[in-house]
Amino acid sequence: MYREKVVIGKGTEYPLNGLLTIPDGASGPVPAVVMVHGSGASNMDEKVIKLTPFKDLADGLAAHGIASLRYDKRTFVHGRKMMKNNAAGMTVREETIEDVLLALAMLRNDKRIDSDSIFILGHSMGAMLAPRIDAEGGNVKGLIMMAGTPYRLEEIVIRQLNQSRKGGGNPVLRFVTGMECKYFAKKFSVMYDLSDEEAKKKKFAGNVSLYYFKEMGQKTAADYLLESDKPALIMQGGRDFQVLADDDFKAFKEQLAGRDNVTYKLYPELNHCFVTAIYDDILKATKEYSVERHIGEDVIADIAEFIYAQK
């Protein structure tokens, strides 16, 4: 394979450095994926301490003859500027969706890429957004959703706070987390009764307003999938403590029951980043992601098989 430096959004207010990975010796146009980050600010490798999921996926897929495009997330490069320009009204469209659409357009204009075989590969919140991106102009061949959820973002925030509150560790930390949980739950409980302008004036934390959650929560990933006939691959780590196999993965199967073109893959020993899990405790997330590991061939091969099955 070889990696080519690119710029997503060149000439716009928010240019982003990226890498287009092309399989070595490819003959003719090849299928490709655009990678969509999870929540928070992260680089093109989606680096989480010592883990680099997007780099692993790009290298692994290239070995199967599949190109990929990954790039720094807008909040990673331009976070302060975004807050200055549009703090109250920022949504996932400005944070994520606009750049994915630019990346997809770049691939479609590249003669080395099969424009009829381009996929969105979303991880975590990127998986939640994948069906929406397709519906709002992505128009891709299919969706690869890794560690996503059919629930709303605010529901996941409250659940993760509850997990931390009920876990072991420092009792003072548990108390503080419990207070945070009640505080945010109260805010979220009235969020959908607010007008958009009212929600923009209500802060969630830092400079993020409740409008960010309200706008995203109008429709879930499952809602978008039920309105679409695009093939989807839903992947889940069995020891993921951020998105849960017994809850989120199960809920996808229940909510999408009867929908065609959905493939489900569960990896019992893998965590949120699809590497072998060490701990089963959200309070040990830092330790979990501080040991270098890489995504295995089983995960890569399943993604490749799904992509080639759509030919």
Mean pLDDT equals: 94
Q: Terminal Cα separation, in Å?
A: 22 Å
Question: Looking across the biggest beta sheet, what order are the strands in?
Answer: 1-2-4-3-5-6-9-10
Provide the CATH top-level class of the largest domain. Answer: Alpha Beta
| Domain unit count | 2
Q: Give start-end ranges of low-pLDDT stretches.
A: none
Q: Which architecture of the largest domain per CATH?
A: 3-Layer(aba) Sandwich
General shape: globular
Task: State which percent range the strand residues make up.
Answer: 15-25%
The proportion of residues forming helix, as a percent range, comes to 40-55%
- CATH topology tier name of the largest domain: Rossmann fold
